[in-house]
Every structure is written in C-alpha cells, then in structure tokens.
Amino acid sequence: MLIKDKDSNQGAIEQLRELLSLNLSSKKKFLIERELKNLNPGHAGGRNASHFINFYCSDSRDWAVIHDLKLENNGLSTQIDHLLINQFLDIYLIESKNYAYSLKIKANGEFLVFDGKRYQSIASPIEKNQQRVEVLDKVLIKRKITPKKMGILCKPLIKSYVLVSADSNIVRPPVSIYDTSSVITVAYLIAKMLNRVERIRRIYQGLKRLPKLIKTDTLAEFAGRLASLHEPNQINYQRLFCPEVVEKTLLADSSGKKIAFDCDYTI
User: Fold this and answer.
1) Quick check: 99 and 46 in contact, CB under 8 A?
2) Strands lying side by side in the sheet with 76-86
3) Which residues pair with 158 in a beta bridge?
4) In terms of Cα–Cα distance, which of 39, 143, 149 is closest to 96?
5) Which of 8, 96, 153, 167 is deepest in the core (most CB within 10 A)?
C-alpha cells in the first residue's frame, strides 16, 4: 500500500540547473550532474526506483511504502528516499542512486564513480545510510508510534540498502575485507528481498504460526503515523555543493536598479 509518494522536486532541479551554468570544476560539475540525474532519472525515458517499488508494492496489503521522507530529531535532519515496511515490522531503508557508469568500492570503504572519463570519489552511501538509520531509530523511540503487543512497543528491525541501476557495473572488494552486500540493484530488490519475504509469510500462514505478524490495518496505521512526521524542506544545493561561495551584491546605481550580481566561486 502506498502511504506517501514523492514530493515535487522541480525547485531542486531548477537550483541544480542554475548551478551548472556557473564556472565550476569538473568534480563539482560531475557531482551536480549526478544529483540532477538522481532527481530526474526519467528525463531520458528511464524508470526510477519509485516506479518499480510502486509497481510491486503499492497495491500489496503486505507492504507499506513511503517515498521521500524527511525527518528531524534534536536538530538533526535526514532525508530518506524510500521506506518499505512489511507485516513482520521489518523496515527497509533504501537510498536510490543513479550511477550511469561503473561504481568501484575499494577495500577501505571508499566509493568511486566513473564519469565517462575518470573515477570520481563520492561520499560513502553506506555510511550515510547508517546515519539515516540512527535518526529513524531515535525518532521511533521518541515518538512511540510503533505498534504494541502485550502492551509493549514492538521493536522494528531496520535494514539499510543502497539501490543502484541495473546498468551499473559494480566492482567490489571481497566480503571478508569490506561487506558491500547492502549495495543492490533493482532486480535484486524485487527477486530476492520482496519475493523472499512473501514466501516466508506464506509458509507461516500455512503453519498458522504468525507470532510476529501485525495486521494490515495496524501496518497502515503505523506507516501513516510515520509519514505524518515528514518535515518538507528545500535543500540549499548552493550551500551543499559550493559552501565556499562568497556572494557580493553591488549597491544599486542612482536609478535604483541593481547593476550587477557577482558570485566569487573558489572551486
């Protein structure tokens, strides 16, 4: 069941396009273009992660789907691309990334994305997801919105994943050195995770042993309460990608009109 769909991202797209018109370094330009593709993956006819998740889960009574959830807790805020919650109270926190080329994950946990010419270093989405899990967990504890059994609040199991395009070529280190199993493709999400949970649910139903299962109405109520905590806000991409920007607005001329606007980007 679809609880919350994506917010409009037109304002963010316009911000990013304006930044691309500036004289930026190749690294800055790459990061902004990648973010633009993440926000607008269908501009070239492609289908984004939300489409596939909704296709398999939005009409299911066993899953609650929340897209684009922004939460705040004690001054800390986080943005979660997708939350999938099942009747076992498993919460899949998913960050979707559109990597058009190769993704290389080094043994030390560094992420490198090929931009068509060279590999560019990016912040680890695995580490970012760990921060999102911490904020989500604290919000659930603070708000006390999880279902109760025997008068005790249930403890959800939160699992985080980084969802990449099926076209992405992922180069990984051995699991024994650095575990990257949380970086998955859409095909893996559908074939392995969602279908596996459905098989387990059917087995439990056949055995009539559903001690952990919550009712569909309870699932919908819990997901609805969580979605109601959404704190919509506009990301300041200029501050995110160009924190060193020094803006200088010239004084108006004698006619009262601004004669220039100068931005000094040290990139």
Assistant:
1) no
2) 2-4, 63-73, 76-86, 90-97, 157-164, 183-185
3) 91
4) 39
5) 96
On the 0-12 / 13-18 / 19+ scale of CB atoms within 10 A, 108 is exposed
Which two structure tokens, joined as six digits, stand for 89? 């109270």
Q: Which amino acid is at 150?
A: M
Tens digit of each residue's pLDDT (9 = 90 or more) over 60-97? 888 999 999 999 888 778 899 999 998 889 999 999 88
Question: How many C-beta atoms surround the C-beta of residue 110 within 10 A?
Answer: 13
Is-contact 194 163, C-beta < 8 A? no
CA-CA distance, 69 to 84, in Å (whole number)? Answer: 12
Residue 231 CB-density burial (10 A; 0-12 exposed, 13-18 middle, 19+ buried): exposed
Residue with structure tokens 């066993």? 62
Which tens digit of pLDDT belongs to each residue from 120-132?
888 899 999 999 9
pTM across the whole model: 0.78
How many helices (H) and strands (E) in the chain? 8, 14
